[in-house]
Each structure stands twice: as C-alpha cells, then as structure tokens.
Write a structure and sequence with these properties.
The protein is α/β, with parallel strands linked by helices. The protein has two domains: about 50 residues; about 260 residues, 2-enoyl-CoA Hydratase, Chain A, domain 1. It has 15 helices and eight strands. A hairpin with a 2-residue loop joins strand 2 and strand 3.
Length: about 325
Amino acid sequence: MTNYLDFEKPLAEIEGKAEELRALARQNEEMDITDEVAALDKKAADLLTELYKDLTPWRKCQVARHPERPHCKDYIDALFTEYTPLAGDRNFADDHAVMGGLARFDGKPVMVIGHEKGNDTKSRIERNFGMARPEGYRKAIRLMEMADKFGLPVVTLVDTPGAYPGKGAEERGQSEAIARATEKCLQIGVPLISVVIGEGGSGGAVAFATANRVAMLEHSVYSVISPEGCASILWKDAEKMREAAEALRLTAQDLKQLGVADRIIDEPKGGAHRNRTGTIETVGKAIKGMLTEMDNQGPKELIQARRKKFLKMGEKGLAA
C-alpha cells in the first residue's frame, strides 16, 4: 500500500478509484473496465507530473523523509558486492544508526559508510531513526583511517535528521566526535565521495559529507538545521516550518548553485520511492562517474582539492 504525502491526496483518490475498478474486474471476469482504468491511470500520471513539476522546499523535505524511500542498506545490498560490515568504535559500543564496512563497487575494493534509518518500527528503533551517537562517528573515523591506510576510496551515504541530541550522547562527547569525523574527512588521502540520499541534517551529515564530490538526489535536502527546529528558534513556532524551509535554501538545486553540492542525481517522476530500483541504479552510475573523475589523483592532490573546495564554498551564491 502506497504511503501518500499530504499534498498527494488528490492523487491518492484517483489511484484508489483505479485500484477499486481493478479489484472489481478480478472478482467479475466478464466486466470490461479497460477504458475506465486507462483514463484514470492517465489522469493520475498527469497529476503526478503536475505535483512534482515545481516542488516547494517544504514539500521536498516531505519527499526526502518518505518512509518508502530507499535507505542506506538498500543501496549497499544492490550496488556493493562482498560487503563485510565492521562494527564498533573500539572504545564504547557499536552504533546501529551508522553502518559501514569493506566492499567492492564495480569490482574494485572500497569502504562504504552511511546512516541507516530502518524501514519498520523495530528496525527504526534499533537504528535510532538514523540519528548517530558519538560512537557512530568514532566508528566512521576508524573506518576512514583503515581506508586511508590501505588506499581504498570511501563512499558515504548520508540520510539523517541530525546527530542524536540525548543526554548520554552529550556526556560521551557528541560535538567532539562530529568535529573529529569532519577533520578526518579532510585528512584522508583517498577519494571521498558522498551522496545525500534523503535528509542531510546538521553536523551529523557534515561529518560524512566533507568530501571531494558531494552529490544529492533531486528531492533530497541538506541543511544546518531542520525546518521545524529553525522555526522553533526564530519564530517560537514549529508550524512555520514552510517559511523556514524557504529561508534555509536546503534543496539540491539551491545547494548546487551555492557550490555545496557538485551534482544533482535525477529521481523518477514522483520521487525515489516510486521506483526504488531505478533510483538505486542511477545513484550507482553517479558514484562510478565521480570515482572515475579522481582515478589519476594522488593523496596530496586529493587532500588539497578537498580543502580548497570547502574554503571556496558559497562563493557562487554570493557572486550571483
């Protein structure tokens, strides 16, 4: 059963009527509803195109958070072979909100790291809804150090509302862990590619996305704070999240203009959740292309290019 977003309610009605007719036809094989169903399907397709033609920033946030959108584990299972998960930060615990390990991409060894939100109630609780604790970032640091030691490209998949803000996380040095992970991204002498596949929230995302190449899915978002959090701070009213989303410039299109994102990866009509397989294949092609761009770059060149990229960030938007 499709989960419809609030702005998709008219579409839900049309697709619901078409499905009802199909159900009737299955019960009564003599009933011919071909023309009626075809008309409804065309109407639904036209409406879907219209709804997604020019999404507002807030609607993009909703699409980026869609529960049926492909998550990190889906990409790893489909795009990477011989995946060997590595657990723990060698200090406190293993954080299930962050998954990562050794794998092969396109036949070549890589290190893949990402946020995992989970896909049902049990797994979402286990994964803490993709909100990493300090041990998650320290695990990522450990894996990046290993990749640097063995000369393996690093691919990160970003999908988090932000780092976990709980008391225990703060006691164990949440901000320090995020800062160290961001620092490690800048230090490693191997290609580092990041893809924002859903939400890129605050420092929790930056810690994985301080990369040579940052790609964003068409309807993903990347911001210093969630629209609801921003609205609560600026207007003392979380219901002003639509205004906050506009002000934050968090869409892939805005961030490409600002130089934060290097590439926008197209999504199927209606969002990644409407064609999960197609979306994953497109992301795989983008990762392959970005890795190829850095084939002949050495460690010093990669580090210098990465640092220069982040020092220049925002100049495009200011110049415009």
